[in-house]
Every structure is written in structure tokens, then in C-alpha cells.
Design goal:
Chain lengths: 716, 209
């Protein structure tokens, strides 16, 4: 549970998590194993179709939330249950406590419910004098430790068998063996005794089917079955977002949920409960059954045109499983109650701005969560949107607002970059890196060498550089982006050389500025819109056949974000879409449009690893062209986890340098293990991170932009 | 191969993939014999319930004391089949239980039930569990054994949707999908069977008419 008061405090908590060796190893193994088992579980299935079906069904249900609630209540009550609507977390907790009071309950059993975690139900019931026992093994363990979960599906993933053995020794007052199988059996016996005693069960549910008033509960352990069977009273606590119209909708979601969560085709148990079941312990042999549907902001989110999609979430936990930041710091630091990407969003709505404001900044925007989400939620976008809202509510931080102002004025921005070049001279020591970083800066950023601003920006070189191409195949506007223009102009020079050799007529429109991604990441939406307008005007889609970009992040922002940013501007929406349609990344353009092939290049036979930039492979779905090009100009040496983020994330790496450094270290180790003498990527931001890291390591591996390698190996 | 056989094969493969033991029988009686054989051969009918040999707290150990006899529970069987199983149990000195399952929360050795449906795609069995006795027999048994008539297998869960809707509408209702044994990976992500429910699931596929 993340509760830091400010970013500084949050960062020191992160550092602490990063130094937890067991956690790091557990998370690493999990991240790798998860991908394999998920792939296996979906083998032969059309995942996109499953995602689409779930998203459509959930959207439909969310739009009809009020109506479904009324139907569910009517059906469930006709079957003999009592249905309650709780507006707030406090109301829900008090409902459970009063049900317990009226029924003379002393001991409560719980099977896992994220909704009850959300309301902190256990605290409330314990304060009311009730004994509460969690029965899911992981929840039982963390309850003994007085902690919250670190994963929605595997709540105790941060703990070792030894820690569990110690906890169980406390419970049994006997020494415990640390063998996992034995520990599980001890829990079986200890909890069986609890099952035998409790008068009330509390559980969550995965689906509340309105057409029949049925609750569906998925578990592997079978604890929910015992919890819902043995005690004489049962309370389901369910979010309004779990309402679903039909049995078919629930079955559709069940095709995706367990596969995406744990790589299982289905959980060991799916219980479908309609009305109070037979219960020998209850008066009259019929259980007292209550169903509390929790609002706690859900009905308001349902009406929000953007955030409604957050209610599609089926709580599979996959967005955490693939998140490179979660992998480094674990769930206690990557969520409040809800964990992972969806946690960054829901925390704001369910637990408030204070709990969300630091957390929400800890997104590296790599898009891995969006790519794995079984409900197709655009998680990175919602995270950015939450951050923007928090800033609108609390006031924009000075650095963010300043950057926004500067970027809105291109000549001011470029003027500052030129000035920075003069200021840096004393610290470069004649190298292309900043050598003597000021102390306050050096401490956190020492993990990589930072590049110096180039002597001459690309835009100043352009007039002398512009190639003449006779009978061109296509007319191209080059979008360089800030990093290529001012830090690595040699990459843009190389791009121009390759493009010309391939037969493209290249222009470099001088009115172009920063793409605007950094300010959008900082929640400065207005500035992001303003620079988009500048760029669309500078690179007029009516003039050029293609807008080619050698920066994966810029390219995906130009292509995916511009139409969205300008959608509500009737004068620009169409132009923004035409602009976006013409944007293409450098590798795809060279390979697929210009059709350059092995005949176009010499092969220098250098062992070459590839880093697949997040915004290229997931942002634009481009995976083949760069790898094919590498194999044409050198020897492609596949490395592990090529498509996992390098840790740069633009402003992320300066905001959370300690996390960035660890993500980078993993990446570089994989490259070294691949035996590569050269590491190639197609994003100058990634080059900055990777090259800086290699330089610090003193490793011999050179880091190049793909255009540089291609330009050097051009034939003729 | 008939489509019925193809479904049975798919069901078998998927159930085995989640560590269920699947065998074919030519009659329900053969399944009963196999259960009793299981009781003997694999010494499944132990005096102690799983975990009772480990260091436990007072409450948990006391509950273990409640299980002092070999027990086979089979609530919900048709009369003639129940009679046959009762006789087999009596011959082997095993207690046969068809009701009062709450007395056996500590555990029974084998719970035997007949599946109402089975789903080939996931190796799942479907039990109408309105009866608390039947529900508990599938939960507190160390080994859950189930008879699946091949004619009751459907290709996917979705094929059952209309039937499920009808079942749920005759409320109250408790329907259970069971796929493999009870499992957890909550300690160090190590897959462990039998955390709360059965440690083993044995399925007898009966090629009925």
C-alpha cells in the first residue's frame, strides 16, 4: 500500500524496494514465466477477438449500470437474497457490520474480494469486535503480516517460504518446516478449523448476472466454495462494475480472464450462486444471503466518456505482470489497494488524489499494459489523463508549467537548447558526454553518461545537406524530433543519406518543433495541443507523400495522439488525421515503401542485438522491418526480452532515475548475454539511455541508431 | 471417430493437463470398483486427513481428532448405485456416508459424485450442487472421484449457456464448475495441489448409450 506524502518520500520508498533482493528475484522470474504461460494458454485462439468481445460486453454493461442493478436486485431478491446498494466504502462496511450484529455473528470468514480490500472492510469489522479470517492462502499470509496485497491474483508474491514458515510458527506455536508443500497443508488444516467455526462468510464475485440474479465466483483454491457453504450467513460484496446482463457475457469474459491472469484455460472452480443455498447450519435450513453492490464512485465513472473504460477491468492483474516498473518495485510500491496500471488509475477514483498523486507519475509509458489488457483498456492514456486532472485540481508544478510554456514557443525552445550548448562546455571534457555533472544531479543520474548538446543542430546543417534526387519515388518530410535535431544530428544525417539512396526526395521543414509527447506525459494538455498544431502546419500533409520519423516515440505520438488531441477542433481534425495517416517510422519506410533490400547494403557481419522501442513495437505495431534491415547490414543476434522497455521513458528517467537505472541494467545484461558487439535501435531516446549505460559500464558494445548502421553499409 | 468420441478425447486431454486422473469405464459399477481399488492400492483411505501429521495449533489438531475412520462419501447417488457402493464399503470396513456431511468437515477420504455435464474445451465437470451434502462431499474430500457419462459432454461452456440460464432461473441454485484439483501458487508461485479442496481429482468416463 503506497502512502508517501510527496514525491521525495515516494522515491525513497522505491529505493528501499529496489534493494529487496528476494522481491527482485521473485518478480523477475514471474515476469518471464508469465509471458510463456500466457502465450501457451492462448495458443490457437484469436486473442484480439476475445479482447474485443470482452470490451464490447463490458462497455454495454457499464452504459446500462443503473438498469442492470434494478434487474439484478429484482431477480436476486425473487430468489431469496437481500440486495443492498452502498454509495460509499464506509456505507458498505457498516452494512456488513450491521448484518453481522443482527445475526449474532462473532467470527467472519473471508474469501478474496478486491472490493472488500478497497473499502478496508477487515479494519472495520475488527473494530466492531469481530474475528476476521482470510481464507485465500495468499490473503491469509498477508493478513498475518498485517499487510495489503502486492498482486491482485497472487497477494503474497513478495514473500519467501521462510517468511511464511515463521508466520505459521506464530499461528501454531510450533516450529514449521519451510517446505512449501507442508506449509500449504498446515494452512489447509488451520483454515479448515476456522471454516468449522465461523458464522458468517464474506466474499467477492467476478460477475453479477442481472438476467438471473446470479453471482459467479472464480477461485483455484476452493476457499470461496467453503466460505459460501459452511457459515449460516453470507455476504457478497461486489462492485457495480461487475454487473453483466447475461450468462453469455460472463462466459465470454471467463474465456479470457483466467488465461490472461495465470495462463489457465479456466480456474479450478467457478461457482454460480443464485439465491440462498441449502445450509444445515441456518434456521430453516436456508442460508441468510446478502449481496452488497458497491458504488464508491463507479456510477460517476460510468458516465465519463473517457474513464468509463476503466470499469471494463476484470481484475486479472496482467497489467502488473508485464509492467517493467512493477517488476522492479513490487506491488506495495506500485499501487494503493489496486495494483499495476489499473491501480494507478483506480486509486485516484477510489482512494483519492492524495494517494494517487505520486503513484500516477510512476508510469514509464511503455504501453506493455495496454498490449496485454484482456479488456482493451487504454491504460497509459488514462494514467496520463489522471495526472493531468490532478494537476488541474492542485495546480501545475512549476517545472511542468515552464516546460509547457517553453515548448509552446518554438524559437524560445530552440534558443534555450542553443544556449545550453554554450553552458555545457566546461563539463564535457572534450567528449560527447557531460563529464562533470553538478553534484545534485550526479547522485541519481550516475547510472548513465548523459550526452552533450551537439555542436551544430541538424537544422543548421540541413541547407548544405539537402540531397538532389532525380525522379523520386516519393516526397518525404523528415520529422527529426528534439533529440535528433539537437543531440544526435548524425542520426538525421544518416537517415537522409539512406532515404536519398532509396530514391526519396527529402525535405526538412524548419517550422517543426518538439512532438509534444513530453508535455503530454507531464499532464500539460494545452501545450501538447499547441505544439501539435505547429507541427501539422509545418509539415503540411497536402504537400508531402510521407512524413518519415526516426524516433519511435515521436512517430507514435504524431500518428496516434495528434488526431485525438485535435479531434474536437473542427478546423483541424481532418488535417490532423491526414497528417497522421502519412506518418511512418524510418525502418518501415525504408523496407516496405522504398523496398530497400539485401542488394542495397553491404553486410559488415557485426554481431548485432536489437532493442525494440516500446513506441515502435507496441505503439505502432512495427516489429519485422528493423530486424530484417539489421540482418541485411550485419549479423542479427537475438537477445532476451527485446521488446521490454530500456528504462528511458523520456522525462521518466529524470523523475525516477533509480528505477530507470535498474530497468536499463537488465536490458544491457541481456544484450551482453547475446554476445553482441553492436546494439541497434530505432529511437534516439533509447539510444541516449542505452549508450549512456554502456558507456558507464565500460562495455565495448557500441550503440547505434539503425539509420547509422544502414548509412555506413550503403552500397555504391 | 464419432464426434462423441472426439469430445471424450478432448475432455480427457484437457482434464489431464490440469492433473486430473482420467480413466474409461464400461459401467458405473466399474467406477465403484475402481474407487474401492483406489482406496486400497494407493492407500488413499488413510486414517489421518492430509496435514494432520504436521505441527498444528490446538484447534486445528482437535478437528483432526474428529477423523478416526476411513470414509467414503457419496450423497446424491441414485438408489441402486448407492446400495452397491454401500455394500463394497461394508465389505472393506470403510464407513459409507450419504448425509450429515457437516460432521466430516475435518475430511473424508473419497467423495464420489456424478457430473451433470462436462465441457470438453477445458476438461471441466459441472455439478448441480443445490444439495449441501453433495456440495460438501466435493469440497472436504481428500480425493474427489466423479463419474462422467460421455453423452453429457458438450464442446464449450458457451454451448451450455441456454441450459445454465434455465437452471439459474429455477432459483435458489448452486452450480459448480470443477476443473482439476484444488490448487494454489501463493507461496513463491510454486504450484501446490489441495490447499482447501481435494488433493486429487479422479474422473471415470462412462460410455453410456
Amino acid at each position: 500500500m503506497q502512502t508517501a506524502k510527496n514525491l521525495g518520500e515516494y522515491r525513497s520508498e522505491l529505493r528501499e524496494a529496489l534493494s529487496d533482493d528476494f522481491l527482485r528475484k521473485a518478480m523477475d522470474n514471474f515476469a518471464v514465466a508469465y509471458r510463456v504461460s500466457r502465450e501457451k494458454a492462448f495458443a490457437g485462439m484469436d486473442i484480439e477477438a476475445v479482447v474485443q468481445a470482452i470490451a464490447t460486453a463490458k462497455d454495454n454493461a457499464v452504459a446500462r449500470m443503473d438498469e442492470l442493478y434494478a434487474e439484478f436486485k429484482q431477480k436476486a431478491e425473487a430468489a431469496g437474497a437481500t440486495v443492498h446498494l452502498a454509495k460509499t466504502a464506509g456505507e458498505a462496511n457498516e452494512l456488513v457490520a450491521s448484518i453481522a450484529r443482527k445475526a449474532g455473528v462473532k467470527r467472519v470468514l473471508k474469501s478474496k474480494s478486491m472490493t472488500a480490500e478497497e473499502t478496508h472492510l477487515n479494519h472495520h469489522l475488527e473494530a466492531a469486535g469481530l474475528e476476521v479470517t482470510e481464507t485465500d492462502l495468499g490473503e491469509f499470509i498477508i493478513q498475518l503480516r498485517g499487510e495489503g496485497p502486492t498482486h491482485m491474483v497472487m497477494p503474497a508474491i513478495h514473500l519467501s517460504r521462510y517468511e511464511v514458515a515463521d508466520l505459521f510458527a506464530d499461528v501454531t506455536k510450533k516450529k514449521q518446516d519451510s517446505e512449501i508443500e507442508k506449509l500449504v497443508k498446515v494452512a489447509r488444516r488451520e483454515l479448515r478449523a476456522k471454516f468449522n467455526q465461523a458464522e458468517m462468510g464474506v466474499s467477492g464475485a467476478n460477475f453479477a448476472i442481472s438476467e438471473t440474479g446470479t453471482l459467479a465466483v472464480l477461485t483455484n483454491e476452493g476457499n470461496a466454495r467453503l466460505t459460501a457453504t459452511l457459515p449460516r450467513v453470507h455476504v457478497f460484496m461486489v462492485g457495480l462494475d461487475k454487473l453483466t446482463p447475461t450468462v453469455e457475457d460472463a462466459l465470454t469474459a471467463i474465456r479470457g480472464l483466467p488465461r490472461n491472469a495465470t495462463g489457465q484455460a479456466i480456474t479450478s472452480y467457478v461457482s454460480w450462486i443464485t439465491g440462498p443455498a441449502q445450509c444445515a447450519a441456518a434456521p430453516g435450513g436456508k442460508k441468510e444471503l446478502h449481496i452488497i453492490l458497491l458504488d464508491n464512485g463507479r456510477s460517476a465513472i460510468a458516465k465519463d466518456p473517457l474513464f468509463a473504460q476503466a470499469l471494463r477491468c476484470v481484475r486479472c492483474g496482467a497489467c502488473a505482470n508485464v509492467c517493467p516498473v512493477y517488476r522492479m518495485v513490487g506491488g506495495h510500491k506500485y499501487g494503493h489497494v489496486y495494483i499495476g496500471a489499473i491501480g494507478l488509475i483506480l486509486t485516484y477514483f477510489y482512494h483519492g488524489r492524495d494517494k494517487a498523486k505520486n503513484l500516477v507519475q510512476n508510469c514509464i509509458n511503455c504501453g506493455a499494459c495496454k498490449a496485454v489488457c484482456i479488456a482493451g483498456i487504454d491504460l497509459p492514456r488514462l494514467i496520463k489523463e489522471v495526472y493531468a486532472r490532478i494537476q488541474d485540481e492542485e495546480g501545475h508544478s512549476l517545472p511542468n508549467a515552464m516546460l509547457g510554456r517553453v515548448l509552446q514557443n518554438r524559437s524560445l525552445f530552440h534558443g534555450l537548447l542553443r544556449a545550453a550548448k554554450l553552458v555545457q562546455r566546461p563539463v564535457t571534457g572534450g567528449t560527447p558526454y557531460l563529464r562533470h555533472l553538478p553534484q545534485f544531479f550526479a547522485r541519481d543520474h550516475g547510472f548513465r553518461a548523459l550526452p552533450a548538446i551537439a555542436e551544430k543542430p541538424f537544422r543548421d546543417m540541413w541547407p548544405a545537406l539537402k540531397p538532389r534526387v532525380d525522379a523520386p519515388k516519393a516526397s518525404v518530410a523528415l520529422f527529426a524530433g528534439c533529440v535528433q535535431d539537437f543531440v544526435y544530428p548524425e542520426q538525421a544525417v544518416a537517415m537522409v543519406k539512406v532515404l536519398a539512396a532509396g530514391g526519396a526526395a527529402v525535405e526538412f521543414p524548419m517550422g517543426q518543433s518538439c512532438c509534444g509527447l513530453p508535455v503530454e506525459m507531464m499532464g500539460e494538455k494545452k501545450a501538447a495541443r499547441d505544439v501539435a498544431v505547429q507541427n501539422i502546419k509545418a509539415l503540411d500533409p497536402a504537400v508531402f507523400d510521407y512524413i518519415v520519423c526516426g524516433c519511435a516515440s515521436c512517430a507514435s505520438h504524431l500518428k496516434k495522439a495528434y488526431p485525438r488531441l485535435l479531434a474536437d477542433d473542427p478546423g483541424l481534425a481532418l488535417t490532423a488525421q491526414r497528417f497522421a495517416d502519412k506518418v511512418i517510422d524510418f525502418s518501415s519506410f525504408v523496407r516496405d515503401v522504398l523496398g530497400m533490400d539485401a542488394e542495397s547494403f553491404k553486410n559488415d557481419a557485426v554481431q548485432t542485438a536489437y532493442h525494440s522501442p516500446c513506441h515502435l513495437c507496441r505503439g505502432l505495431g512495427v516489429t519485422k522491418p528493423p530486424r530484417e534491415l539489421i540482418a541485411m547490414a550485419g549479423q542479427y543476434a537475438p537477445a532476451a526480452e527485446e521488446d521490454v522497455c530500456c528504462g528511458f521513458g523520456g522525462t521518466y528517467s529524470s523523475k525516477f532515475p533509480e528505477v530507470s537505472a535498474e530497468i536499463l541494467a537488465k536490458k544491457l545484461s541481456h544484450v551482453e548475454a547475446a554476445g553482441a558487439a553492436r546494439l541497434v535501435t530505432d529511437c534516439p531516446g533509447c539510444v541516449m539511455q542505452l549508450r549512456g549505460g554502456m558507456e558507464k559500464r565500460g562495455a565495448g558494445t557500441v550503440v547505434r541508431h539503425i539509420a547509422e548502421v544502414l548509412a555506413e553499409n550503403l552500397k555504391g | 471417430m464419432s464426434s462423441k468420441n472426439a469430445l471424450a478425447d478432448e475432455f480427457t486431454a484437457k482434464a489431464q493437463a490440469v492433473s486430473a486422473f482420467v480413466s474409461r469405464v464400461s459401467s458405473p459399477e466399474e467406477a465403484l470398483e475402481k474407487i474401492m481399488a483406489l482406496c486400497l492400492e494407493r492407500s488413499a483411505c488413510e486414517l489421518l486427513a492430509t496435514g494432520c501429521e504436521l505441527p498444528l495449533s490446538g484447534d486445528a489438531a482437535r478437528l483432526c481428532d474428529g477423523k478416526q475412520q476411513k470414509v467414503v462419501a457419496a450423497p446424491g447417488l441414485k438408489k441402486d448405485l448407492s446400495k452397491k457402493l454401500a455394500k463394497l464399503c461394508a465389505d472393506l470396513g470403510v464407513r459409507y456416508v450419504t448425509e450429515g456431511m457437516r460432521e466430516y468437515v475435518a475430511g473424508v477420504d473419497i467423495g464420489f459424485t456424478v457430473a451433470d455435464r462436462a465441457i470438453a474445451e477445458t476438461g471441466t465437470m459441472v455439478f448441480n450442487s443445490d444439495s449441501e451434502e453433495l456440495r460438501l462431499a466435493t469440497m472436504v474430500s481428500e480425493i474427489h472421484a466423479a463419474l462422467v457419462p460421455v453423452s453429457r459432454i458438450v464442446p464449450t461452456a458457451m454451448d451450455m449457456a441456454p441450459e445454465l440460464r434455465k437452471t439459474f432461473s429455477g432459483a435458489p441454485n448452486y452450480t459448480a464448475f470443477v476443473t482439476g484439483a484444488s490448487r494454489t501458487a501463493d507461496i513463491e508461485r510454486v504450484l501446490t495441489l489441495g490447499v482447501h479442496g481435494p488433493l486429487e481429482l479422479h474422473i471415470y468416463l462412462w460410455e453410456d448409450k
